[in-house]
Structures are given as C-alpha cells and as structure tokens.
Amino acid sequence: MANDTTPILEMRGITKTFPGVKALSDVTLSVARGEVHAICGENGAGKSTLMKVLSGVYGHGTYEGDIVFEGETCKFKTTRDSEERGIVIIHQELALSPFLSIAENIFLGNERATGGVISWAQTNRQAADLLTRVGLNEQPDTKIMDIGVGKQQLVEIAKALSKKVKLLILDEPTAALNDEDSAHLLGLLRQLKAEGITSIIISHKLNEIAAIADSTTIIRDGQSIETLDMHSAEGVSEDRIIRTMVGRDLENRYPDHTPTIGEEILRIENWTVRHPNDPSRLVVDNAALDVRAGEIVGIAGLMGAGRTELAMSVFGHSYGTGITGQLYLHGKPVSIKTVSAAIENGIAYATEDRKHYGLNLIEDIKRNTTAARLTKIARLGVVNAAKEITISEQYRKDMRTKTPSVDVQVGKLSGGNQQKVVLSRWLFAEPEVLILDEPTRGIDVGAKYEIYEIINKLADSGKAVIVISSELPELLGICDRIYAMSQGRITGQLPRAEASQESLMRYMTMEKSGATR
Amino acid sequence: MSTATKSKTEGGSLAGYLGGNLKQYVMVAALIVITLWFQFDTNGLMLLPNNVVSLIQQNAYVFILTIGMVMIIVAGHIDLSVGSVVAFVGGITGLMVMQWDVPWPLAVLLAIILGGIVGAWQGFWVAYVGIPAFIVTLGGMLLFRGLAINYVGTTVGGLPSDFNALANGALPNWLGFAGNLDVVSVVIGAIAILGLLISQVRTRRELVRNDLRTEPFVAFLVKAIVGVVAIGYLTWLLANSAGGMPIVLIIVGVLVLLYSFIMNNTIFGRHIYAMGGNLPAAMLSGVKTKRVNFLLFVNMGLLAGVAAVITTARAGSAVASAGQNYELDAIAAAFIGGTAVTGGVGKVTGAIVGALIMGVLNMGLSITNVRPEWQMVIKGLVLIVAVAFDILNKRRGK
Fold first, then answer.
1. Which residues touch B129 (CB under 8 Å, ≥6 apart)?
2. From residue B235, how far is each of A312, B143, B254, B351, B370 by CA, in Å?
C-alpha cells in the first residue's frame, strides 16, 4: 500500500494568520496512503495549528492554501465536514464525557438510533466490537471516569473507527500515558496501518517517532522545513531531527546583560509532586534546583515536562498533592504551604495563563496591580485609594504600559500590556524570588524586548529570577544558567556559555530508561 | 474642565461615558419614571408624605438583606435561606423579650449575634467543606424554617412599643417644627445633601489630580443635581409626614454607607470582587478564599439578624411564618440593581436602587388596586427584563 504513488493527503501552501501573528507560512505536507507520518517541532512551531486547519477547526476561508484529500480539493467548514470524509483528529485534551459510558461516548453525536430513540442493543454490541478492535478489555457500559487515561485514549480511537476513519490524526497521544500504555498505543497504530488506515502523529518523543513513523515532517516557526524518509538507507538519527527542529538564526533580539550574582536565595531538594487527580503519577520527580540573587535561571522543557507544575508547587503548593522534598530560603529549611505564605516569604509566581490564572479582566489596572499585596497600601483593612493610584501610575510609567490611564479595564489591553500589569503586580509584592512562567507568550517582538529589559533590571536589583519558557532562543538569550526538564525530572543543567539549543533539546527529550519497546 | 483634551480616554465624551455606565443610569431613570407614572396614575397619592414613609418602612428588610446578598452574589454564590433565618432569629428575639425577660436592647444585640452564628454555620459548609452555597442555603431554608416553627410555634405577641418603634417609629421631634416641617428631618436631610456634594467634589478632584478618567462635567453636574433634588424632596416629604424621620431609614442609611465603604475601600471588599472576577487568579494572588467565603456568610447572617429584628418590630410580634420569600426579594433587588449573574460586578447602591424599584412597584400596584396575582406577574417580568437588558448590553459592548 505504501507504494501507492498518489498521496492520500496533500496540503499546499497553507498560510494561517492570527491577529498580529503569522502562525503558518506556506506549509506543505504530503502524506502517503497507509503510512504513519510524524510531525515534529518545538512548542508553538505550528503543528497543532496545521492539524486544526486540516480538520476544519479553522474552517475554509480562514486560511490560504489548498487541502487535497484523496485527489479532491476539500473545503472543510467544520470538523463535521472533515469527519464525513474520514479525517478524525484526537486532541491532546481528550474530548470525552466522564459521566457517560464508553459506548455512549463512542457514539456521541453519531447515536445508533431510529427516529431519535436510541437502540441500546446496537450501541453496546457495536461498541464491544470496536473495543475488541482496539484491544481494550472493558465493558461498553463502564463509565469513562472509571478507566485510566491510557484506556480513554483507546476509546477515542474506537470512536474514530466508528466514524469510518481513513486518516487518523493524533496530537501528542502518549504525552499523558505511562510506558505500558504508550507501547500498547503504538502497537495499535501499527495494526491500524496494516488495516489500511493512515495516521498522522504529532509527538515530542523522538524515540517513539523512530520506532513507528514511516516519514517525518519537521515544522519550525510556522514553516515546513523538510520531510524525512525514516526508512532511508543511511537512517535518521535523533540528532538530525533535533538540529532541524531548532536550527534557526539567533538574531540580536536580547538585551546585553552582565549579571552580578550573589548568595543563594532559593533551593529545592528531592522535590516530588503528584498529580492532583491521579496520585500515582509523579508530575515532578525528585527535582533539585537552586537560584541566587541577581541570577536569571531558565527551565527548559517540552509540553508536559512538569515545569509549570514544579513552579506552582513551590509557590505555596498551588499545584499537586503529596508534595515531598525540602525547600530552603537563604539556606534555611522552610515549609510554605499556602500562596499567602509564599508571598509573605518573598516568592512570586507569574502564571503562563494570564487570562485564566493571572488577571481579573473585568477590573481596572490599578486594582490588578495591587492585588497580591493590598496590605502594603492599607491600614486597619482600609485601602488607601490615593496611594493605590499613585503606585499603579508609577508602575505604568516604569513598565511603559501603553494605556491612557490606570482606570482602564485590563481585559481591554493587548497581551504585552497585560503581561506588564502581571509583572507590576508581582513587583509590587516585593518578592526575592520571581518565577516567570512563559513571560513572553502571545506577545509581539517589540514588547518581548521590553519584557527582557524588565527581567534584567529585576535581576540587577538583587532578585532571583526563574524563567520558564518554551522558546529555547529566549532562554539562551536571557538566562545565566538553564535547567532542562523531561517527564518530571530535571535531566540536566547548563551554564549559558555551554548551552545550545541542541544540547538543551537532548536533555529535554531524554527518556526514562526503557520507555518504548 | 479639560474633558475635551482628554477625549482619548474613553470616558471623555458624553456618549462614550453613557455607554459605559448605561445600566446604572437606566435603572435610576427607570426608578424615576415608574415613580412619576404612579404619581400621575394615582393623582398624587403615591408620593404623599405618609405613603413614602410606609414605603421605606415596608421595604426596610429588603434594603438590609440585599446589601448582604450583593456581596454574596458578587463573590459568585447565592443565599436562599435568609427568609427562614429572619423567621428563626425573629422568633427567638420574640421569645427572649416576652418569655425569657431579656431587656429588648440586649435582645436586639443577641439577635444580631445569633444571625452571625447562623451565618457561621452556613459559611462553614460553603467555605471549608466546599458544598455549593446553593445547596447549603437550600438546606438552611428548610432547617431554619423548621426550627422557627418548632420553637416559636404560635404567635409571640405584645412586644414593647419601644422595640416596635425600631421599624415603625420616627425620631422624636427634639428640635420642634418650622411651620409644618419637622426640624430634625430637615437637619438630617441637609447633612445628607452636604455630605453628598462634598464626597462628589472630592472624588472628582482626586481623579483630576491624578490625571484619571473623569466623567464629563455635564454628567457630573446632572448627577449632583439629581442627587440633591432627590434627597431634598425626600427630606421635605419626611418632614411633612406624621412622625418625621423614620428610625429605620437611619439604620438603612448607616448600613448602606458602611457597606459601600467596605466594598469599595477595604481589603475584604477587594477580595470579594477579585474572587468573583477570577477565582483562580485571586487564589494565586494570595487571597485566603476560604476565609473570605466564611466571613461573607457570617456577614449575611448578621444582616439577616438585623432584618429579623426589623421584621419582628414591624409586625409587633414574632411568627414562624415571617420572612416568607424574603430571599427572593433580596436576590431580585440585587440583580435588578445591576449585579452580574456571573459574579465579580455589583454595587450596594445599585442593589438599593433595585430594591426601590421593586418597592415602588409594590406600593404603586397596591394603590392602583392591581390584584396580587398580577403584581407577581409584573414583578417577575421586571426581573427578567432587567437582567436581559444587562446581558444584551454587555454583548453589544463586545
């Protein structure tokens, strides 16, 4: 089948723009019939966007370029249109309803019914057949919430099969799976391939790709760089893929900075954090890390490596359960179990998700600025409104936040200016350690430079700064030392001088031994 | 005023300003229109001095309860139990005075404390156990009604007249009369007008000094004039009424000022808005959300205690069936007054305007002999239209 010369899918010249950002630029993708085609790239390279264009999440007309499926140009308006042609996407965040049964989920929106009345016999019998096909040994009437995430993944695939899938797209299917479930899933993909189903798999796990993919397309900065034949005579090394993934020019996008590094401020040892819903999963696994006054320390890692979880668990246990390990401030062991205690002890965490976890979008700038440390401008619980205005006005000027006044609703600001409000808030809290999670996400280049300058100024004022970022050049551009995380573990640390995108990526993709068979 | 040069700020133009504050103005305008309509329709009966006094006295419980309710709703909760709590606490108050020989001033204090304890009970379940407030207070609605019926049983009547005066009485005419006008009322009215003007001017000056967005001068002027005229007219009516200044208006006035201050100027108030606006963000800013939730319900209980005292005093007796549907009055007032269904937005003064709209409707419809069943239909529709207006207005703004 793989020798069939006409590709099942061709995407030509796909360009997709979001307000202010070009997410995809002239991307070409050609998938042969019956193959497993891997797509690789850094976080934010445009992989998921490309798949959303393909599956109709971004409908025809919102992008430029052509999608040719089975020799026919397709204009999908919705995911329903693409599913009718046999293209099914399984997102990273599984779309199953936890309180419904396996069978109900499989046929959700596609019910086995006559005249609106569901035939339960048919539903359950057909579901049972599908479960056998994907090798899931569960009863069709078991509730989704009662099975693990690995089995849920299989239910998603069964659901795709029920729709007569021809092209199956899996976005990071093994990111949340343990080794055994991952191995089973990969086995299933091979079996589906034998049945003639083509799949596209987005994955960060290079050994996984090496094990299963027939060809691999690498996407970088919204462009398709090249497609590698994984069965070529000379073979494809992981290094080869890594180099292509990160190989972009480092322009002078980062302000110069000479650090003055002082005493250690924060250190963690044996830090282990468990998943709040599934305590058997170690989200952070025995991590150790330290940061000094005046130092900017980076944490690199791919999606799901546990960076945010590590940061939030340090910030007053705001993520995770069963947290063990020791936290030291100025060399003294401390126990900080609430966010307010963390703030009082001089730890601040600026979230990666401003809109959901950072700002109160319906409030104005000044109230958002003072939110984390209202006590500083209050006496006997009464807030001094005049002081609040003066202070937030001062931060507005220092940060060069572009807004007519501090009275403006934060929801009306641009991403860069919102980020400056977040930074103002945490500066106002006067922390010693400032953890910045993706501080430049969704921000245009000019504003990024300003944020970097602010970060440098913070370090110069003696604060210890931890920067979590998915953009390696950013980490290399502003950090003095960089840790890499993979699967909850800190797999390496490099001083800036020794770090390169390739060396970091190697640590970031380092697997626990024997991950895939 | 430099409003023209500052027109880059959104509030600079009158139209832009009205757009942003449309809801508030529409509600105040609606209140005025409804009042004038009934005034016309009843040939001036509506705004007779004694009718205005009884409007205030009849609706005092709504004003008091809706203050606490706004805070609860802004934080993203609801309280369905306040009517039953009013019956329970009111009943115990009656028993304290009539059967346990507690002097009535002490009984009033104990009633408010008892309300606080009831609130702490509900707050415990909401804040520390994590049961949705809807469920906890639905349970409370049954629980406290049951307790009221059990302990109060038949009517406990014959409460002392000094106690009853809290709801029905007026301040004594210490300062005599000027013509037909009670001077005490005039003095209090004058103080209120002065206070309003001073606070308005000071707020505006503060904004100008800090180069912040101010309302257009016309709006400022109109607002001040409407405020002065309203208070002045109300003062004139009260000074002309049989008793003079109602005691309960003083109580409500003090509570409104106090709680407006709490909501606008204290850390506690800020935390309520922060939690309603974005709960995870508030948590990650170090807001002790459990404690705030707990205190919110304690506060609601305290206010329900005050409302219980007023309700009992108004009836002159404690009955187990008191406070029926009070929670719905308070919730409706809060929503009509612009409190957001999704939390995060709402003002004490807005809810008071909402309560007034409902109160004026009640009185006007009664005077014009609209049958009670049709009064219910009309009030139900008003509630839905008010919230629909709010939602549509917001959608258009996007």
1. none
2. 57, 42, 16, 22, 29
Residue A157: closest CA among A205, A229, A96, A240: A96
CB contact under 8 A, A371 and B268: no
B180 part of contact set with chain A, CB < 8 Å: no
Asked if A385 lies within 8 A of B265 by C-beta distance, the reply is yes
Are the C-beta atoms of residues B363 and B51 closer than 8 Å to each other? yes
Q: Which of these ranges, A58-62, A179-183, B365-369, has the smallest mean pLDDT? A: A179-183
The per-residue DSSP string of B126-148 comes to IIII---HHHHHHHHHHHHHHHH
CB neighbours of B224 closer than 8 A, spacing ≥ 6?
A: B196, B197, B200
Backbone torsion region of residue B272, taken as left when φ is above 0, otherwise alpha when ψ lies between -120 and 50, otherwise beta: alpha
Q: How far apart are CA B332 and CA B342, in angstroms?
A: 15
Of the candidates A439, A456, A464, the one whose C-alpha atom is nearest the C-alpha of residue A345 is A464
The whole-number pLDDT of residue B9 equals 39
The secondary structure element, H or E, covering residue B330 is helix B326-336
Q: How far is A277 from A275, CA to CA, in rounded Å?
A: 6
Rounded CA separation A450/A317 (Å): 31
Across the interface, whether the CB atoms of A381 and B274 are under 8 A apart is answered no
Round the CA-based radius of gyration of chain A to a whole number and report it.
25
**Residue B238 CB contacts under 8 Å (≥ 6 apart), including other chains:** B49, B52, B53, B182, B185, B189, B244, B245, B246, B249
**A335-386 confidence digits (pLDDT tens):** 999 999 999 999 999 998 888 888 988 888 999 999 988 888 888 889 888 8
Mean pLDDT of A8-17: 91
Strand partners, A327: A268, A334
Kindly state whether B223 is in contact with chain A, defined as any CB-CB distance less than 8 angstroms: no
The answer to whether residue A469 scores a pLDDT higher than 80 is yes
The amino acid present at B64, given as its one-letter code, is I
What pLDDT was estimated at residue A514?
42
Number of alpha carbons in the 13 Å side-chain half-sphere of residue A267: 10
Measure B273 CA to nearest chain A CA, in Å: 8
Q: What is the pTM of this model?
A: 0.78
Q: Does A409 touch chain B (CB under 8 A)?
A: no
CB contact under 8 A, A405 and B277: no
Span A242-296, pLDDT tens digits: 778 777 554 567 888 888 888 999 999 999 999 888 788 889 999 999 999 999 9
The predicted complex's ipTM stands at: 0.76
Is A296:A475 a contact under the CB 8 Å cutoff? no
CA distances from B364 to A117, A160, B168 (A): 52, 63, 20
Distances from the Cα of A20 to the Cαs of A23, A445, A485, in angstroms? 9, 10, 31
**Per-residue pLDDT tens over the stretch B172-208:** 878 877 778 888 888 899 999 999 999 888 888 877 7
Residues in chain A: 517
Q: Per the CB < 8 Å rule, is A382 touching B265?
A: yes
What is the C-alpha to C-alpha distance for residues B246 and B51, in angstroms, rounded to an integer? 12
- What CA–CA distance (Å, rounded) separates A148 from A472? 33
Q: Indicate the pairing of strand A215-220 with strand A223-229.
A: antiparallel
Please name the residue of chain A whose CA is at the shortest distance from the CA of residue B212.
A405
For A135-168, write each residue's pLDDT tens digit. 888 899 888 888 887 888 899 999 989 988 999 9
Is A357 near chain B, with CB under 8 Å? yes
For residue A371, what is the nearest residue in chain B, using CA coordinates? Answer: B285
From chain B, pick out residues whose CB is under 8 angstroms from the CB of A386: 206, 210
Number of continuous H segments (helices) and E segments (strands) in chain B:
16, 2
